[in-house]
Amino acid sequence: MRKRKVIKKYFILALIGLCCLFFGLIISAFYNGQEQSEYQAIPKIAIGEQAVKHFSEALQLKTISYMDYQIDSSQYVAFNNWLERTYPLINQQLEHTIISDFSHIYHWKGQNSSEQPIMLYAHLDVVQVIDNEREAWRYDPWSGKMATDTIWGRGALDDKVAVLGILEAVEHCLVNGIRPDRDIYLCIGHDEEVGGKLGAQKMAEYFKSNDIQFAYALDEGLTITKDLIPNIDKQVSLIGIAQKGYCSVELSTKMDGGHSSMPSPETSIDVISKALTKLNHQGLSSRLTLPVKQMLSCIAPEMPFFQRIILSNQWLFAPLIKRSYEGSNVGNASIRTTTAATIFSSGKQENIIPEQATACLNFRLLQGDTEETVLDHIKKVIGDDRINITVIGETTPASNIANTNSVFYERVEQSILEVFPETIVSPGLVMAGTDAKHFSEVCDETLYFRPMIMHPKNLHTIHGINERIAIKEYEDFIRFYIRLVELN
Ligand SMILES: [Zn+2]
User: Fold this and answer.
1) Is the peptide bond before 233 cis (omega within 30 degrees of 0)?
2) CB 453 within 8 A of CB 224
3) N or C: lower Cβ tally within 10 Å for the chain?
4) CATH number of 49-243+399-487
5) What CATH code is assigned to 245-396?
6) Ligand 1: centre distance to CA 211 (Å)
7) How far apart are alpha carbons 223 and 365 in whole angstroms?
């Protein structure tokens, strides 16, 4: 009898505990969610037709980067000349330095040059249009075609839109006597699509040798998203506060080859294939890093009831969140260092067993993981001494994480909300590498954001077919940079 009473007592206590936990979760979901800053929409500044005409002209110049650096330099020279005649005030009033012939630095002196400068970065080069895809474009990708409300061409989103958007904004400010408080450097790279070694990397060396240290930089990386984050109807402006790193590793083995009529039980191809399969099945460990945690807190209030509770209580639901994120490629890439087999080479003739097999794996490093983490992981998972593991090329470490309480973050946020009042703003993580990686030594904090709206219909046009932007969106793009300059 007494035992039953005790059990009942514990049962009631457990029930009370569960109720408290449940109400605690709800309270935290509704009171601890990241509040959106409140800014009023500002009147839309008139953007002249000239701006669209300039954009069209720039899209017609084939400033294409190729992996072997065999560029058509006449197109880049034409771009230089075009820059000079298109923005008279920028060329008169800003100090212009050309790096590696085709990259540009414009130094705009602020009213208070004692403050550390900021950098607005963009790249003028684009990827090529693959021959067999050309037919699929509605308009010639090099025509800069303006069709009713849209402008078409390679670079309309990545990244000539930013080169032009920034230049138009600054020219507008100069015309109207607007001058920033601190110095601003407009930096335009010309080889981002192939790694930025001649552009951004040389610019960074130039800044270093001239003792120029930036407080903040704004580069490409994330955008305004529409219908890309599940369960959110609103547009979400994602400001990247960190980018992942980059590391490539080669696995190779050499074994007896010979005639394919009498194969041994295991060949070099088998050994490397087994290693790849193991690495594919067992990825590096997952975790929620600060940019992702902050993003979840920001979007939680916009989510349906149960998701809101889960995202607002990450201390309890992190395993659940991670499991759900693992279900999609983008989600998975945001919670772990990813492993991708990209090259496999072995064998030359169908009846010869090759001695050697090699494979290349590309890893995108999450904050906290390094080259050593990756090498240890590979060794542990494959557990095969016959395989040589070598890092190839240059490893780029994962970037540091920018502070979302900084004045610059606030100003980027304010510029977004005043020009795009229908969006909510959230920090985010950039999966791909941008030119900003070269500036880690001369810039303390980098944010990654372009004020353009990406949605399922235009996402694949970047580096793909029918790249384009609505003229109205391009005008807002310029307005964002004008506002950002005014605030700085
Ligand atoms: Zn780009």
Assistant:
1) no
2) yes
3) N
4) 3.40.630.10
5) 3.30.70.360
6) 27
7) 21
| Cα(435) to centroid(ligand 1), Å | 8
Ligand 1 (ion): which residues have CB within 5 A?
158-159
**DSSP of 423-453, one letter per residue?**
EEEEEEEE-S--GGGGGTTTEEEEEEEEEEE
118 close to 109: Cβ distance less than 8 angstroms: no
Taking the whole predicted model, whether its pTM rises above 0.85 is answered as: yes
Q: Which of 228, 217, 202, 242 is nearest to 98 (CA)?
A: 202
Do residues 469 and 159 touch, judged by C-beta distance below 8 A?
Answer: no
**Cα-flanking dihedrals φ and ψ of residue 119, to 5°?**
-120, 130
pLDDT tens track, the chain, 488 positions: 677 787 788 777 777 777 776 777 676 676 666 678 889 999 999 998 999 999 999 999 999 999 888 999 999 999 999 999 999 999 999 999 999 999 999 999 999 878 999 999 999 999 999 888 999 999 999 999 999 899 999 999 999 999 999 999 999 999 999 999 999 999 999 999 999 999 999 999 999 999 999 999 999 999 999 999 988 999 999 999 999 999 999 999 999 998 999 999 999 999 999 999 999 999 999 999 999 999 999 999 999 989 999 999 999 999 999 999 999 999 999 999 999 999 999 999 999 999 999 999 999 999 999 999 999 999 999 999 999 999 999 999 999 999 999 999 999 999 999 999 999 999 999 999 999 999 999 998 999 999 999 999 999 999 999 999 999 999 999 999 999 999 99
Q: Which residues are catalytic?
A: 125, 192
> What number of helices (H) and strands (E) belong to the chain?
15, 17
Taking the CA atoms of 466, 78, 435 and 453 in sequence, report the sign of the dihedral they define: negative
Residue 479 to residues 49, 277, 392, Cα–Cα distance (Å): 14, 50, 43
Residue type, position 308, single letter? R
Q: How far apart are the first and last CA of the chain?
A: 76
Q: Which residues contact 189 (CB under 8 A, 6 or more apart)?
A: 103, 121, 122, 123, 124, 125, 196, 199, 200, 203, 435
Ligand 1 centroid–CA 56 distance in Å is 18
Distance of CA 125 from the midpoint of ligand 1 (Å): 8
Two tokens, residue 311: 């995202």
Q: For the beta carbon of residue 394, count every other beta carbon within 10 angstroms.
A: 10
Cα angle: 408, vertex 414, 418; to 5 degrees: 150
Each domain of the chain, given as residue ranges in start order, spans: 49-243+399-487, 245-396
CA distance 217 to 29: 33
Hunting for tokens 């790279």 — which residue is that? 189
